[in-house]
Write the structure tokens for this entry.
Amino acid sequence: MQAFRVNILGCGSALPTLHHYPSSQVVEIRGKQFMIDCGEGAQIQLRRSHVAFTKIQAVFISHLHGDHCFGLMGMISTFGMVGRTAPLHVYASKELGPMLKSQLELFCSGLEYSVEFHEINAYERKTIYEDRSLTVETIPLEHRVPCCGFLFREKPTLPHIRRDMIDFLKIPVSQINNIKNGAGWTTEEGRTYSHEELVTPPEPVRSYAYCSDTRYMPELWKQVEGVDLLYHESTYGDDKIDGAEKYFHSTARQAATVARQAHVGRLLLGHYSARYSDENELLSQAREVFAESYLSCEGYVEEVKKY
């Protein structure tokens, strides 16, 4: 099974602390690497995580608050200094487009690679990226500015050929793809073997949902139902539930409620308020609702798998 993992670069909130970097992650899926959000210090964290600057194909920005995008311009500049030639695709709300263009003209006029901007609508559920092996969809959220999460989902693969049956029946190589796509096989003696007898099931499809800044949404679980791994902001604990509502954030307990209702495999908490020096109190509150809750932290790598 090919790698599908989430590398946490930063999981703090807007106010800087010595404990956490602002929001940023790298999702590696089937040999491709994508960044979600790009807070200050993201490029330093890329170095620490040994993620190659040249391998990131795209950056998905959830919303235009500084702790989610202030690191983008510096990272783009650094990519140019290390000889990047492949285009970098940036997905974000339309307001970033003109600003990104002007900053590129001012600071990065000599780039030897292109930065391609893709406008997204944070208020609609839509597939914004697709290739042969995966899709990325937006997840509309409720924050003080237009904001969306992102759902990464593998596409189904073909079943695996049973090598013992291929050898036993002397099936020619030219027929293997036909069998993978549903065909059976008939021997010279006239015996027919069904497709199911010749293959084993494909690897299960895996999925990851990133829910950035949002107040508690009672219906959000419907958008992330059944995902294998959910990252949901948990800025506050029970002691600040009023602040969560006021500033359009969620508590750890509310994040866990979404995870439980959606029947996800595991929940990662993040986007911690600077007021908490020990996030274990957030973890305890989340686990009272959903046992498979875990704290994210810088340098943490989570394999996305079926549970």
About this structure: The chain has ten helices and 18 strands. Residues 96-107 form the longest helix (12 residues). The chain has a mean pLDDT of 95. The CA atoms of residues 14 and 67 lie 5 Å apart.
